[in-house]
Amino acid sequence: MRYLTAGESHGKQLTTIVEGVPALMPLTSDEINESLLRRQKGHGRGKRMQIEKDLVDIAGGVRHGYTLGSPIALVVKNDDFKHWVDIMGEDPIDDDKKIRRVVSRPRPGHADLNGAMKYGHRDMRNILERSSARETAVRVAAGAVAKTMLKQLGINVVGYVNEIAGIKAEEYPDLSFDQKVTISEDSPVRCLDPEASQKMMDAIDQAKKDGDSIGGVCEVIVEGMPAGIGSYVHFDRKLDARIAFAVQSINAFKGVEFGIGFEAARRNGSEVHDEIIWSEETGYQRRTNNLGGFEGGMTTGMPIVVKGVMKPIPTLYKPLQSVDIETKEPFTASIERSDSCAVPAAAVVMEHVVAFEVAKAILEQFPHDQFPKLKKAIDEYREEIRCF
Amino acid sequence: MRYLTAGESHGKQLTTIVEGVPALMPLTSDEINESLLRRQKGHGRGKRMQIEKDLVDIAGGVRHGYTLGSPIALVVKNDDFKHWVDIMGEDPIDDDKKIRRVVSRPRPGHADLNGAMKYGHRDMRNILERSSARETAVRVAAGAVAKTMLKQLGINVVGYVNEIAGIKAEEYPDLSFDQKVTISEDSPVRCLDPEASQKMMDAIDQAKKDGDSIGGVCEVIVEGMPAGIGSYVHFDRKLDARIAFAVQSINAFKGVEFGIGFEAARRNGSEVHDEIIWSEETGYQRRTNNLGGFEGGMTTGMPIVVKGVMKPIPTLYKPLQSVDIETKEPFTASIERSDSCAVPAAAVVMEHVVAFEVAKAILEQFPHDQFPKLKKAIDEYREEIRCF
Amino acid sequence: MRYLTAGESHGKQLTTIVEGVPALMPLTSDEINESLLRRQKGHGRGKRMQIEKDLVDIAGGVRHGYTLGSPIALVVKNDDFKHWVDIMGEDPIDDDKKIRRVVSRPRPGHADLNGAMKYGHRDMRNILERSSARETAVRVAAGAVAKTMLKQLGINVVGYVNEIAGIKAEEYPDLSFDQKVTISEDSPVRCLDPEASQKMMDAIDQAKKDGDSIGGVCEVIVEGMPAGIGSYVHFDRKLDARIAFAVQSINAFKGVEFGIGFEAARRNGSEVHDEIIWSEETGYQRRTNNLGGFEGGMTTGMPIVVKGVMKPIPTLYKPLQSVDIETKEPFTASIERSDSCAVPAAAVVMEHVVAFEVAKAILEQFPHDQFPKLKKAIDEYREEIRCF
Amino acid sequence: MRYLTAGESHGKQLTTIVEGVPALMPLTSDEINESLLRRQKGHGRGKRMQIEKDLVDIAGGVRHGYTLGSPIALVVKNDDFKHWVDIMGEDPIDDDKKIRRVVSRPRPGHADLNGAMKYGHRDMRNILERSSARETAVRVAAGAVAKTMLKQLGINVVGYVNEIAGIKAEEYPDLSFDQKVTISEDSPVRCLDPEASQKMMDAIDQAKKDGDSIGGVCEVIVEGMPAGIGSYVHFDRKLDARIAFAVQSINAFKGVEFGIGFEAARRNGSEVHDEIIWSEETGYQRRTNNLGGFEGGMTTGMPIVVKGVMKPIPTLYKPLQSVDIETKEPFTASIERSDSCAVPAAAVVMEHVVAFEVAKAILEQFPHDQFPKLKKAIDEYREEIRCF
Fold it and tell me: What cofactor does this one take (chains A, B, C, D) (predicted)?
């Protein structure tokens, strides 16, 4: 399974093609739209989220509610494009018109300057329109296909927020997976801890007032994974490495960790590794899940637990110093319409890119032409390793 | 540039083929052997490191000290194989001989159990021989080719240790790159902070005494990178994501972060983003490097700063509980010859896998058939972005 | 440069995303539409070609007539979809409605039966909608981007028809490239030989009358290629092999050959190899071009000459025997609306898939972020090898 | 499944790493050596084939006669290297020593000149050592792993010679697969037709006497393939296209065709397509196999039949004109030790590269971690499509 995406932030539409999805899998736009909607929610989102409601158009690969096995094309239109035709249209225009909305002032923390130097653009709109996190809408759409598939295989994925601006959620180890889904969905900041939720909202409001922005830590859990997905035999087949790739590739993410993550540097080995137990009924299990569901690049059968850190979004009202690339004069960074905190949305994005990698690894390992056979194969495998 | 590796820990040899190296690049086994040697050093390494000194044999792709443009084959023999022929030989043997050294007891924290279930091996030696960190020797060899290339392009890479068992090194922001190389090389734990070095050694000795193991945090710095390497245009072309992949794929690594990394969740945006300044002489620069040299998946021109966390190696003398897969009886985990702390070696491995990804990204961006032309193209690009 | 396509024959639209196109390259829908139009022409096309005129919508990656460096999304709507919503719509429908237009009769020569067995579809419409040559419309669109790029680099590509139903065109070695373009464009069967053109049209008319279909041989020429594109260093980097792949992947193609191709089995080596000559003015040249522009998987600087054979399209009015998969009763194959000869269109498709591979190889070899720099680099390379 | 190769013709060794082979598959060096031996045979081979007998060393991935699931490293030593250390050694040498055996005279038909221009080598030995067909030895070794796997899955592959220097073998449609194996093996030119065999040998002898070389056509048959391997859903998943790629990538090949191939341009559709019949016992079958076992890029269940054409090897005793790249003086091409006809060997190479692609496609489609499970899955699939 693989996908490509296209589309600019204020362009006509976002597009993705997802190739390699099994045939005969139930899939409707409802599941995808639900994911798109979840991405748009969250305390602290800017106005655009309220203006435009993302809806997917399935433009290929699905017929009568089932996948065909053909590539799936997903389109998310930008409703607002009508106001941007002159600025973002694909047709050649007169040079004098081009001047409008030229961006010559790179914003620190964005791709603007480095992208402009790389691609030779003097109008950095050519960069920021694509480097914008708007593109994550179709990454979510692609991931929603994966999530729908996983769900039907008994594998569930959820993303929520652990920390915003230094406010950390309490750990609630006793929450069931479903509870995590429900509680995070109900929280305006996708946080499992009600008290922290409130503090996070306050911090977001304060940041907005200050013209500043704040980041945070998202966590994604994948429950129901059988052991042995991914592989140790070659470094580029390790599933945790692929997930790290996917998470780090999300706009504004600066790090990723599995299980106890960086805390592993502070504990003794005897306090880190997850002891193996066995019972006739369940097969092999682990007493703990410090390693976040991975050993040797493969799943252990315990839930995958992965965290990613998002930096504060760099589009600030509070000015940062930069330099106009035409005049070379210093200025304080230009302002695009923006959110002050996008961490709750990022948790949804992260959930979906993780789901994609997990689904991809499953498809590589099991027969994947026909969805019902895939489902059967995984069930058999589950039984097989239970009796191993 | 791409590579495959093969070889088991106690097999005949480790092999890698590196395809896509430019022609006419000076390369000798000396550079590679130096990297291999550095990987074998470090306070707390087990006996095997003293027994076997890894030496590379360049078995293709290099002639008279220069690369041909052909794939480069690198071989590291396992000197000890002569004692392992019966156990690890490729030829069929009688079933009664096979019993010897069968491993039926999976070690927590290793690939043993999950790998066995995945691949259907009842003798987990079939897993552990490949999942062993021994394989990192040829990843270092492949990375040494990349490092040699980068060095000749004015790009330098070094890895060192920031933290072991909770003991953190002081930051020495004023050290030059060369000083970092020299000081870390002189430290038995590859640490820039002499005081912390000593404490780390003590902790290692104590862990050994306790039959326990300890992990730590490695940091790799890439200096001399021009801005604009990598790309934001498609998520799988982001260089930081590729580096995250490479680091996470190192045996026993559990996380990776760039610049201030997870700390970004605790600061305001105005304290995170690296302001842009400009002078005629140097072109664009940043006041700070909180983002670790990356914006939008591209380099900013500041040094790449990436950290990776290594868990304590799971081969313990202190027992962890596990289950024999034949008898289903609980036992306390079996002991293979082992190090108590491999973090200093891991820093060298990390240095080399990062170097590989960086070199690969450079080759994708610049003309790469002939090394002298590559060098010229990068120099021109540097000048171009200085004057952008 | 890479691309994915999606879309079914009677679905909403065809979509392609082309990733890896340099920034700052002039590109408008005109060039792409011209290619789409050429694909739809040709004596012997069925009615659909007259009903629907393919037009591209550039839905990302291009702004104001220039590429951004971002992925390019291209959409070709199926105007006729409004009549097919019930049959091909993506939304779930009641089971009783599904029965309409179910295809249970596999057509020999099509993907129907094998595809159905592979993907488990009992309604073979689920296969034929995607396996249809309709999809080549977006392969042409993607190829048109490549062709536009090549043209601006001084590299021109044209496809025409050499043979239909055993009628072979005379060779006209003295025609210039431009003459080949013009003459083939004016011929209703895209043939350079006027006399053969007329015979081919007669054969097509006769086949239509007989309810039969006929195939033919297409030839594509790439002129202006510098020597040394592609590589011998690893088998999967040979450009002729990649072109063979692309040509063989066109619907209904059964073979591909370069230069004298299979004739090479009948000549002595002294009559096959292209002798090397040199002059100060032109550098190295060849006396002949028997090898079709390739030695060692690399271009020789002579035009690339590649032929592909297309089988007669398998959708016949003249019945072929097959078996209904539900009743297991023999029948004579069902009839879908069809052309009796699609070779002229296939020549256009082949032209575009070859263009894509050639452009891709060029981008791999030269700096490709900025189009003007790419152009400069190729010009410099041309001069360099002239003086080699 | 994927592989990389390394090694120069007179270098130390040839190496390949094959990644992605299932675990628990019986594999010994015997099968690989048999393939290597077959590649070295054939009337008309030069002296080198008699001097050096290729033997494989399995240097990883196999233990006690079974695959581990780890990457497999295969090494074929060049026995003669000891005489070439000065010329081909990897260590730097004094410039005055380098002069020896410098090749400044490009041979028409070889990669020499184009490769030199591309990579900037003035000593074309740097090209010819890698572009030599010597490399096919390890491609055969990698293919032998695939062939061994296929055989155990009930899929057999054989290559033989259909034509040399215009002498065509009679078709023997009644020969069983095993007979084809035996007869071709017994023929010094790997030809099924004894009369043609003799004429081919005479032609080879005559060519040798004349200092000329001759080419031919090889055919590979894959018997036992279930229907539905490969896919039509995306152009790059078509198995025939991948095979075309692999065949065209063999040194000196100039074309490839499936089934009746180019003859399809001369027949009516009603004479080309393979009618579908069905019986309870066998399921679906075809009356004919004109399409060579492929429809829509997928197998039909009939044998795969693919032909490739090899040009006469360009290393001639009979001179061709060329130009010295240092003096720019014309000369008649230099002579390296050579065969006058390599078509019989090429048939073995082609057999193995086809086997690799077929095995790869099978592994993509079926569960491939454990060989016994793969075998079971294919058997089940065979039954399933029989009852479809």
Answer: FMNH2
Residue of C31, C62, C70, C81 to mutate, interface with A, max A Cβ within 10 Å: C70
Q: Does the ipTM surpass 0.90? A: yes
Taking the C-alpha atoms of residue A265 and residue C215, their distance in angstroms, rounded to an integer, is 68
- How many angstroms separate the CA atoms of C386 and A178, rounded? 69
Per-residue pLDDT, B159: 98
Q: Are B101 and B56 contacting, i.e. CB atoms less than 8 angstroms apart? A: no
Query: Are D234 and C114 a contacting pair at CB < 8 A?
Result: no
On whether any CB of chain C is under 8 Å from the CB of B195, the answer is no
Give the distance from residue C8's alpha carbon to the nearest chain B alpha carbon, in angstroms: 26
Distances (CA, A) of C103 to C129, D251, D286: 11, 45, 20
Check the annotation: does C282 bind a ligand.
Answer: no
Residue the block writes with tokens 């089988």: C311
User: For residue C91, which residues of chain A lie inside 8 Å, CB to CB?
Assistant: 28-29, 64-65
Report the distance separating Cα C89 and Cα C91, nearest Å: 6
- Burial class from Cβ neighbours inside 10 Å (0-12, 13-18, 19+) for residue D198 reads middle
Dist CA B286 CA B273 (whole Å):
9
- Spatial CA neighbour of A351 closest among A75, A34, A27: A34
State the pLDDT confidence band at D157, using cuts at 50, 70 and 90.
Answer: very high
Interval A195-248: pLDDT, tens: 999 999 999 999 988 889 999 999 999 999 999 999 999 999 999 999 999 999
- E-state strands within chain A: 2-6, 13-19, 56-58, 62-63, 66-67, 72-77, 156-164, 167-168, 216-223, 253-258, 276-279, 283-286, 294-295, 298-299, 304-310, 321-323, 330-332
* CA B149 to chain CA centroid, nearest Å: 17
B2 touches chain D (CB under 8 A): yes
Q: Does the beta carbon of C369 lie under 8 angstroms from any beta carbon of chain A?
A: yes
From B163, which residue of chain A is nearest by alpha-carbon distance? A265
Task: Report the percent of chain C where pLDDT is more than 70.
Answer: 95
> Between residues 217 and 236 of chain B, which touch chain A (CB distance below 8 Å)?
217, 227-229, 231-236
Can you tell me which residue has the tokens 């790059």? D236
The answer, for D379 touching chain A at a CB cutoff of 8 Å, is no
For A365, B120, D163, D213, D339, the CA distances from D48, given in Å and listed in that order, are 44, 44, 24, 17, 9
Contact call for A245 and B241, based on CB within 8 A: yes
Tens of pLDDT along B22-56?
Answer: 999 999 999 999 999 999 998 877 665 566 799 99
Strand, coil or helix: C132: coil
Give dist(CA A40, CA A49) in Å, integer. 6
Q: Which chain A residues are within 8 Å of C130, Cβ to Cβ?
A: 68-70
Number of domains making up chain A = 1
* Structural domain that includes position D246: 2-386
Per-position b or e across A71-110, b if 16+ CB within 10 A of its CB: bbbbbbbbeebeebeebbbbebeeeeebeeeebbbbbbbb
Contact C71 B234 (CB under 8 A): yes
Other beta carbons within 10 Å of D332: 13
Residues of chain B found within 8 Å of residue D6, distances taken between Cβ atoms: 17, 19, 59-61, 70-73
- Residue A46 touches chain B, beta carbons under 8 Å: no
CA gap C346, C184 in Å, rounded: 13
A124: closest CA of chain B, how far (Å): 13
- Residue at C305: amino acid letter: V
CB contact under 8 A, A369 and D369: no
Cβ pair B296:A245 closer than 8 A: no
- pLDDT on residue D336: 54
What is the domain-level CATH number for residue B26? 3.60.150.10
User: What average pLDDT does the structure give for chain B?
Assistant: 94
